[in-house]
Sequence to fold (181 residues):
Amino acid sequence: GCPFNCSFCLAVQVAGRHNRVRSVGNILDEIEECIEQHGIKNFLFRSDTFTANRQWVLDLCQGVLGRELDIAWVCNSRVDTLDLELLEEMKRAGCWLVAFGVESGSQEILDRVNKKTDLDTIRKSLKTVRRAGLLSSVYFMIGFPWDSRETLRSNERFAREIAPDFLEVFYVYPFPGTPLH
Fold:
């Protein structure tokens, strides 16, 4: 679940507002099973709110290190849920990339879609990810009803400015049940 309410996102409709997490021990056991029984050592923690609970992420990292699990992993995050100490601990535990839904390089668009972040926070987060020695991936969206040539140019300028290691562009789809719909 996701406690945020971005107007385009299905997370609240699909999983609710409450961020539910599995226990750290349960996840570590599953990682061990993947390694031992299937030879899997690379993981994507696919959660829109993976880093929302800082202590839970730190506990997971400590568990990976404590069990000496030799894994590589990536995760999704929000730009406003990270700090250098957390990112450094994630890297020590095998994280090599953090992905963010930036959505737009226009503050007007971010406000209209209820993203609850700002361009400066995005800038700072990408710099902090680099400082921690991790790669970044960002997602942009195009085709909001309020997009214009200027907001699309803002996306391009902002993407060049923040210089992520990877960039994905998605078109906007007004999913039924979302405020955007």
About this structure: The first strand starts at residue 42 and ends at 45. Residues 103 and 140 are 4 Å apart (CA to CA).
